[in-house]
Amino acid sequence: MHWMHLMRVLGVLVKTFPIEKNRANCAFSLGAAAGVVRQLEEPSMRSSIDGRRAGRVAVVLALPVALGLSSIPVLADPSPPPGEVVPDRRSGTGQNGVALLRVVVPGQDGIDRLNALGVDLAEYRKPVDGGFEVHAVLSPQEAQGLRDLGFDVRGALSDQADFTENTADRQAALASAAEAAAEADTLIPLRAEWFTSRGDRRFLSVEVKSSATDAQTVLTVTWDSGKRTPPGSGGTATMSRFTDAGQYLYHRFNSPLSVAEIPGRVTVTSSRGGSVTAPVTRWLGDRRKAPGRHYVADFVDHYMDPTEVTDRITALAGEFPKISQIVDLPYRTNGYRRAAQAQFGSGAASTFYVSSKAYGHEGGNDISVALVRPAAASAPISVSVTGKDIVVNLATDGAGAISSTARQVVDALDADAEASALLTAGTYRDDAGGGVVAAAPATRLTDSLKAPSSVSRDPFQMKALRIGKKRDGSKTGVFLYCQEHAREWVTPLVCVETAERLLRNYARHGRTRELVDDLDIFVVPTVNPDGAHYSMYDYNFQRRNMTNHCAAGAADPARRNSWGVDLNRNFSVGSIFDGYSGASTNCTGDTFAGPRELSEPEARNEVWLTRRYPNIKFAMNTHAYGGYFMWPPGAYRSTGRELLPRVDLGMENFFWKASGHILSAVQSWRGTAIWPGRTGAVPDVLYSAAGNSSDEHWFNRGVISWDFEVGADVYDPATKRFHAVGFQPEFAEGHEEAMEFAGGQIGILEVARSFADDGDRPGSDLKVTGRTGTSVTFTFETDEPANVYYTLDGSRPTLSSPKLAAAGIREEAQRITVGRTTEVRWFAVDIAGNVEGDYRPDDGSDDYREERVEVRDPR
């Protein structure tokens, strides 16, 4: 059987085994299946994905074939052999070939397949011709392995190659076209906006939903050149179909279009016959007043590790004790520490490794192991220990040749009381260890950690900087937190810059003083201190923390860059343990959710803070990169794209209104505009992220939560393309990102203060939108983001009455149709809880709104 055909069969099998919460019946990994099939075809070939994160499986697929295992690299210090990927920041070559590469997949199925293979995907996705561009952290071996599996792996971000188009599968396209409706489709305009970014250059963004959801429906946009100019005079472009989890959402541009003049209207036409015209409005039109000459900013001048960041906020609290304090978070982290290890052998069957029981800095780095060939024939295996120097005297056969296998050496070390007090031993990745080992000189174990002595190896004390004139819980609280993912170096600078601006401008700037006086602000600049230390000093693409939950079969030293928990997948709402998509249960996967919900102290610290201070009503989780502004819900179950509950219409409108203010604050620094297409609920613009912290805070405690992804794409006028900036741009770019998104955090504080001061009651009106001879269609309009509760049966409306909903994803309010004359009664409630008029829905008053909607009989 051809291996690619077998892969398709195995892929079908994988999809039939959902991951249960107790994980007792976890599906085997597609990555494991791929590896097995390739070994069946070429038994002597080394798996090209075996480098840094090979064998990412919990269950091995058993096939009735004897598998030939290829040789593996030896990872014994001080010099790893050729072919092994060992991180070394001193080389200056991007982790010995590991790089952030562009991968183009034809659709969501391709992303799901990469996740199933355990590929380390960045939190970035961009629609391109032929599908989606995603970015992956890959070694050369892994990149080649993905190419061998048919993936389109392209150059590093520093090499901006042209995109190539991926064609849709012909049979699927023909089947979809056959099912498409023959009549003209209906087009619903969602958004049509222009904006400027990085100067005076203008861009156009349009989103439209078609009632024809098949892939053959093509939408074309034309626009004018401004008021009183002919339709289509500005230009024309074809829209891209945006799908997620196999479902059509709407059409949009792959990226905003550069336009010479500001359009007044756009017309969208469909290949199915539908057409719609919509006005173009301004995105980010909030012109912010400059803070004034006395306002000071720009307090960061280099990337900082978590030790520096924590010292910085501690010093700030000491300098400004009247308006700030340090809150020690209760759960200490694992710490920047590892067991010391060494590995011996040259093939899977003859390889074993040892790990110290003490952490490296606590004595593990002082242990050495030697494998000695005795001079005598027929010698038994034995172990001797002098201090921390361990010698394994290997067994010999009658001819004096070494006869000890890897398994026998492991058993001998485990059986020796003195040796087993110092270390544990294991065969390579659960191999039987039947191969004969070779003699080896004394090799000292090492934890391989390279941070300077200024970085403590002890469990880390996480801290929050609490800022506010009145810090007794009476003021509305705002939680600003950064660097859940270690490799996102810009994000802690955002939090530090925000704290500096608040404290140093308090005495000189009136608007800053109002924020500090009226709010209770909690700043945690680094949620992932251990992983961030590891990222800065050992392996810059580290995403997770440093807690190793892997069993012996996945704990060999070649995997030391693949351990840890993705903290933004470790929370208790919409987690992978509840069946939601976008995380992994594989301990070496970069979206590993941990062994259980809230297993990690870093995640528990976030929960503790929002529980300990219930006055926290707002939160911002700052990540990198891509230039996104998002809100809950953030996760769905893949089957049927079953989302966590969407926010109601009033809250959705509040998010959109607040985004205009907050993103205008981002734009005020250097003109960067976050695109409308990268603004919205997480699954509407990015992907599902099971167990993320924003969902945790929103669904469990009602905290209004946002997610920033700093580092917006940069437009190149010469190529007319947007280019990504990556996790760790040159500091000149990183500095600018910190400055602009610190402004965004200040914008969030301004939104929170307005919320706290909001005592105004909302207003609403009933608006008739259509009439026929037998029916009337209407909706409600409000003068601010608010929810409308209504009745149609003449009863008194309450908070249990039907609530006006959105017509669909990113759409306006639903339309209500009645077929007879109806007495409509309603009231509005804004996000701060203010009720329209003097109405009290729970005490029997009758100050609700009412209007008679008449259906006129045409006879």
Residues in helices, as a percent range: 10-25%
* Integer count of domains: 5
CATH topology of the largest domain: Aminopeptidase
Shape: globular
What proportion of the residues form beta strands (DSSP E)? 25-35%
Count of distinct strands: 39
Instruction: Compute the separation of the termini in Å.
Output: 74 Å
Structural class assignment: alpha+beta
Keywords: Hydrolase, Metalloprotease, Protease, Zinc
GO cellular component, one term: extracellular space
InterPro entries: GH29D-like_dom, Peptidase_M14
Biased composition (Basic and acidic residues): 837-859
Question: What characteristics describe this protein?
Answer:
859 residues, alpha+beta, Immunoglobulin-like, Aminopeptidase, 5 domains, 8-stranded mixed β-sheet, 6-stranded mixed β-sheet, 39 strands, 26% strand, globular, disordered N terminus
